[in-house]
Amino acid sequence: MIPIAGLPVLTAAEMRAAEGRTMADGTTEATLMERAGYGIAEAVARLAAGREVLVLCGPGNNGGDGYIAASLLRRRGLPVRVAASDAARSEGARRARAGWDGPVDSLTEAPGAPVLVDAIFGTGLSRAPASEVQSALRRLASEAWLRIAIDLPSGIASDDGILLGEVPRFDVTLALGAVKPSHLLQPAASHMGQVRLVEIGVAVDSGARVMRRPTLPLPDAASHKYSRGMVAIVAGSMSGASELAATAALRAGAGYVLHLSTDPAASAQPHAIVRRRYSADALAEDRIGALVVGPGLGRDDDARARLSAALSSGRPLVIDGDALRLADIAALHRHEPPKILTPHGGEFEHLFGSVTDGKLRATRRAAERSGAIVVHKGADTVVAAPDGRALLCPEASPWLSTAGTGDVLAGAIGAMLAAGMEPLAAAEAGVWLHAQAARSCGAAFIADDLADALSAVRG
């Protein structure tokens, strides 16, 4: 079982193509299924710790993997039973079924077991399982001490995180050959438990991958405040939001943070933030490495003017909050320096339209249209670049669902961009720091706590 951080993410079509290339090079389907079955058996044997195992097999190759794993577990001496939702239909499943020398119970009548292995359906499912299959799976899952899904829990579409029926929550999901989008996209991701990869010898590659711990820029003996990065925050009518972004930029490692507002004397904490009166001319400061605009900006004519000045400034931009409601695609394209957009779901739909074909596809399309890195925030944050590269983030703390946490994220990303990181890497680093800070805060934190916590996870 391999942790998935940093691994490629493949759609169902990409996975089929990768398997096809492997078989074209001489590896048979039977060999791939044997490898999958072996990897499943190894993982289940370790996790079951001698407890009785019930393997649920479907009619296709996912079921075939289950039959092979059950046979291997029996050879190891584990108590194992098999129940099937239907007769094996694919050639691989029929071959694997023939290798299982024990009885096969009906899925709807099988008694439960302490360890449940769901190998009914996997990648490529496009419609809901039959109601009797869903009902039996829910019953058996409720009776199990440990629930393990093979490739994907049965009833989940592999590419867009959609639940096609009532799906139990599993403790572990064993991704076969590659991580799939639904391992990380909601609502499916909340049904996966811990996701681990089982290698089956297929060479996989993709422009999308799972977020991993980034390599963060660190100061050295020659560093000074400007070399660490100067971030300018364009404030608006709600100064609290821009103050949060400014604090976060400092706590994330920026060497100098300039807060530009209408009334710089109105707020004085922390003292490390430099406060000046806003003017468009202030954005011409050559040492500004990143400009953050949007947190608390407002949506009046003054806000529009400030956004226009930011877009005309020639500075790398982080665009968040109100600025996303005021911007348009054409204006974004005209801004040639690096730009990172950080919309939540509502802001994304306002700027790019409804998400109809999954968050990963929609975010990639938005990045291409805008010419920007797009950080599509949420419990399943997706980050995409105009060239098609994408990052899928593991589930974040649900306590991030409080006012101001998005402003903190904008500031953290601004610090990474000002430090000279490539824009996609800067977005990844900011999102990673934000998630780590949230975990360190525990429960019921507020955005101020989150901004302060960035220092502790920054090293």
Task: Write a concise synopsis of the structure shown.
The chain is of the alpha/beta class and 459 residues long. 37% of the residues lie in helices and 16% in strands.
Descriptive notes:
The protein has 459 residues and is an alpha/beta fold. It folds into 2 domains: 2-204, 3-Layer(aba) Sandwich (Rossmann fold); 230-457, UDP-N-acetylmuramoyl-L-alanine:D-glutamate ligase (3-Layer(aba) Sandwich), CATH 3.40.1190. It contains 14 helices and 18 strands. Helix 2 (29-48) packs across helix 3 (61-75) and helix 3 (61-75) runs parallel beside helix 4. The model has no long low-confidence stretch (mean pLDDT 96).
Please write out the topology.
Elements: E1 2-3, H1 12-24, H2 29-48, E2 53-57, H3 61-75, E3 80-84, H4 91-98, E4 104-106, E5 115-119, H5 131-143, E6 146-150, E7 172-176, E8 194-198, E9 208-210, E10 230-234, H6 239-251, E11 256-261, E12 274-277, E13 288-293, H7 301-311, E14 317-319, H8 322-326, H9 329-334, E15 339-341, H10 345-352, H11 359-370, E16 373-376, E17 382-384, E18 390-392, H12 405-418, H13 423-441, H14 447-457
Parallel strand pairs: 2-3, 2-5, 3-4, 5-6, 6-7, 7-8, 9-18, 10-11, 10-13, 11-12, 13-14, 14-15, 15-16
Antiparallel strand pairs: 1-8, 16-17, 17-18
